[in-house]
């Protein structure tokens, strides 16, 4: 049951819905694509926008410069008169950078010109970053504005950490965490970058998969060759590349990278029972995407395959002639992007070496092979008995009128490993996205209902932990 | 031993070397890329250029219109006073269209701005089409000009057939052959589009591989998906595509397409002995391209694998994210271009169906598959006892001072099947290209020595068959 101040803050939040939406639209217009160097200026503008918004709420806010994109760090000591040592201190993490919007021709509206339209669940906002992650950061910003409106300050000590490289593997983050350790050493970190179990059904993500992301570059021969004059004698790098990638998994879906499963624990009977109890409908989950045949390791349930088993996915492949019609060429270069989601127990460094070995052992003597490593992050697991988890479950039940469920996350949030590793922080993963938000795809959207419910849950959470 | 007129024609040819080279440069400037619709006008210009050049030699010359690019047909009855029935009638075939020049950034000079430079064998001309096929057609045009200069006419009845779609599988040619059958019914067809055995070592190609060329388009799912949220459950079309293409061959290099080898005859002991006698140096052949490990079926010699065994080469592949850095996507579309060189006995239609089955049988139920067929042509074999072959061997020995060798051709010239099928003509494949001409690659070149020697051999051939 919220106390009076919390109720006031909720009312202030509700009356500011239009302003919250307009604020999000403003932020979404900035094309802060971290992966593309020509948008570096936009990334900075998106960061500065947030600094201004937090400064307006009395936060000490600024940018930590890095070799890449800057990091927003803002802190507020909490209610006036509260001694620093007494207050709970929460760290709110998010990211202002977004995925590349390509392929542009598949967007119904331009990716950086947000539109609000009607959908099956009411209004939604469509833009790149609508949910991942600006919309979700907005659930915190709106909550902080509401507390500022009714109390002049958040009810606890709050530090906000919003980086600009999450989508490219956060290469510049760890040194910032080390340098700002004193300022960032909170009692818990809160990350809003995950999904609800379903619309109206809140969940807390208690584990996240890690990731390694590489690019395989193969070269066979000095130049492209005529496939008639050389076919049957000259090696073909695209036949080679496809043969190698084609062997990534056996017929049971088990990944063949050497040492891949070293350290991977089987789920407990308890975990399996809890997942079965969720009633995950894989047919509907896949059917919504025009799919029907589950991939992944045979004999394991969908939650297990999505949350507790590692993967190997080819994210892109190219080489040879890709234009109209025919070109009878044996190409000399082939490339592929490959990423693996990791589970607790797997060492990202060892997985990278396994990939290197996997490719190298399949190469003829005259092939040239380069492996570019774009990202490495181990999986994280949140302690199941954490009091913060219990607190979050309580406020979610208050807001949504039903118990929240504990799920695993299929996606990776490498910063969770960094926050644990550098700052010793456990992370609470409480998010308000939905599976059909089309994250990383064209026409990414965020239900406005989820935006406002998420902000309300955050208002409640701040009030709850202050007591 | 050439007669007086042949000697005079050779002298006239030799004195016109500069003019021959300048004429070729002029023709090479026209970017007659048949595969790219935006060059349709250039294709027509290249055809009209040849019509004018032949008309200037007294040929009745014009264009046969088609749904695609026009075909140049030009005829000359031979010496004045010669009765039509008496004269030998030769058909000269070539093509004015050229391969796409991409990738442009690898050319040392622009592909349609011919340059003459010095090389290990004297001067060479570099441009797209320098040898394939404008340079080789020029060996005939120069020979005809020389005979015109000294005799006012070629010494035999000559019909010239130069099409504009050879590089895209000659889709419009057969109806022209049918429609113009009377005009094109010669005693033999001569095709200059093949290579010499080596520099200074002439050869006659007595067999040509056929070809099928397809594009495989796969779709899995309605949209691109986030690889964390969906990895382990959703099928990945690029993992699927690479697995399928990776199974094209077994570890002995044998192609796994169903029915692929039906009708393929083993070479005779005689053929194998003749090939062994050639002393084909595969290490040098591959070494010149920066390769060292032979591909193709284990346990067979290089000439056998290049001339008498079919192949399956992936010519291009693409799908997913191909830009800078990372995008953690499970793509919904993947594409590949695949072509097979065929040998006598294989039915192109059946090979296409075999490819279709090969892919279809490896698809999950929710995959969508389209097969685009860009070209189909069976292999051809030239009768080894043909008197035309004997005549060609004689003039090549005169010109080059050594016996010519009989080789197979790795590449396909589908028109050879058409000329046989529609007009009943055997084809003499006498060409002057070299293996390092970089046909179908950037920096395609033609040795000027080969241009002029080829023209001289053709002058001799015309004189020889007139007797």
CATH homologous superfamily annotation of the largest domain in chain A = Zn peptidases
Biggest interface between protein chains, with counts per chain? A-B, 101 and 101 residues
Number of strands of chain A: 18
* Range of strand content of chain A: 15-25%
Q: Count the domains of chain A.
A: 2
The biggest sheet of chain A amounts to:
9 strands, mixed
Tally of DSSP helical segments of chain A: 15
CA radius of gyration of chain A is: 24 Å
CATH class of the largest domain in chain A: Alpha Beta
Which spans of chain A of ≥5 residues are poorly predicted at pLDDT below 50? Answer: none
Helix share, percent of chain A = 25-40%
Q: What oligomeric state best describes the polypeptide chains here?
A: homodimer
InterPro entries (chains A, B): Cyt/Met_Dipeptidase (IPR051458), Peptidase_M20 (IPR002933), Peptidase_M20_dimer (IPR011650)
Organism (chains A, B): Teichococcus globiformis
GO molecular function (chains A, B): dipeptidase activity
Protein name (chains A, B): Dipeptidase
Concise synopsis of the structure shown:
The structure is a homodimer of 467-residue chains. With 467 residues, the first copy, chain A, is of the alpha+beta class.
Could you describe the 3D structure shown?
Two copies of one chain form a homodimer. Chain A is globular, with a radius of gyration of 24 Å. Chain A contains 15 helices and 18 strands. In chain A, helix 1 (4-15) crosses helix 4 (134-151), helix 2 packs across helix 4 and helix 4 (134-151) packs across helix 15 (448-466). Chain A folds into two domains: 4-208 and 379-466, Aminopeptidase, CATH 3.40.630; 210-275 and 308-376, Alpha-Beta Plaits. The mean pLDDT of chain A is 95. Chain A has helices at 4-15, 17-28, 40-55, 134-151, 173-179, 181-184, 227-230, 237-246, 269-277, 282-287, 302-308, 348-360, 387-400, 414-423, 448-466; strands spanning 60-64, 71-76, 89-95, 115-119, 122-126, 157-163, 188-191, 203-208, 210-220, 225-226, 313-320, 329-330, 333-342, 367-377, 380-381, 405-409, 427-430, 445-447. The longest helix of chain A is centred in the C-terminal third of the chain and has 19 residues, at 448-466. Chain A is an alpha+beta fold and 467 residues long. In chain A, strand 1 and strand 2 (71-76) form a beta hairpin. In chain A, strands 1, 2, 3, 6, 7, 8, 15, 16 and 17 form a nine-stranded mixed beta sheet that branches. Chains A and B meet through strand 9, strand 10, helix 7, helix 8 and helix 10 of A and strand 9, strand 10, helix 7, helix 8 and helix 10 of B.
């Amino acid at each position: 049951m919220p106390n009076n101040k919390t109720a006031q803050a909720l009312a202030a939040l509700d009356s500011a819905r239009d302003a919250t939406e307009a604020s999000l639209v403003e932020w979404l217009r900035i094309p802060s694509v971290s992966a593309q160097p020509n948008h570096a200026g936009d990334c900075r503008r998106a960061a500065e926008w947030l600094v201004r918004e937090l400064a307006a709420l009395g936060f000490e806010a600024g940018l930590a410069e890095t070799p890449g994109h800057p990091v927003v760090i803002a802190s507020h000591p909490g209610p006036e008169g509260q001694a620093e040592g007494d207050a709970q201190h929460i760290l709110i993490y998010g990211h202002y950078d977004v995925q590349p919007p390509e392929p542009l021709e598949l967007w119904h509206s331009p990716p950086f010109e947000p539109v609000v339209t009607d959908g099956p669940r009411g209004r939604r906002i469509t833009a790149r970053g609508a949910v991942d992650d600006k919309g979700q950061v907005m659930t915190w910003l709106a909550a902080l504005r509401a507390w500022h409106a009714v109390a002049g300050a958040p009810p606890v000590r709050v530090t906000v950490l919003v980086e600009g490289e999450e989508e490219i593997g956060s290469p510049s983050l760890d040194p910032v965490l080390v340098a700002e350790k004193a300022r960032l050493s909170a009692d818990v970190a809160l990350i809003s970058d995950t999904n609800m179990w379903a619309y109206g059904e809140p969940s807390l993500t208690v584990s996240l998969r890690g990731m390694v992301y590489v690019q395989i570059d193969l070269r066979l021969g000095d130049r492209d060759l005529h496939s008639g004059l050389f076919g049957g004698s000259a090696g073909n790098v695209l036949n080679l590349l496809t043969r190698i990638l084609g062997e990534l998994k056996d017929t049971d879906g088990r990944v063949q990278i050497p040492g891949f499963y070293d350290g991977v624990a089987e789920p407990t009977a308890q975990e399996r029972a809890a997942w079965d109890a969720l009633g995950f409908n894989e047919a509907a989950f896949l059917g919504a995407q025009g799919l029907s045949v589950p991939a992944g390791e045979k004999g394991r349930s969908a939650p297990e395959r999505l949350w507790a088993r590692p993967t190997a996915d080819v994210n892109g492949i190219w080489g040879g002639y890709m234009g109209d019609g025919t070109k009878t060429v044996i190409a000399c270069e082939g490339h592929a992007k490959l990423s693996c989601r990791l589970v607790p127990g797997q060492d990202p460094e060892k997985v990278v070496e396994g990939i290197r070995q996997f490719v190298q052992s399949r190469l003829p003597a005259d092939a040239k092979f380069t492996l570019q490593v774009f990202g490495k992050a181990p999986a994280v697991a949140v302690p199941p008995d954490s009091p913060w988890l219990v607190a979050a479950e309580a406020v979610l039940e208050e807001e949504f009128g039903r118990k929240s469920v504990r799920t695993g996350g299929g996606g990776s949030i490498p910063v969770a490993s960094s926050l644990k590793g550098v700052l010793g922080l456990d992370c609470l993963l409480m998010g308000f996205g939905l599976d059909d938000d089309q994250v990383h795809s064209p026409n990414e959207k965020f239900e406005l209902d989820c935006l406002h419910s998420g902000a309300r849950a955050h208002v409640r959470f701040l009030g709850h932990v202050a007591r």
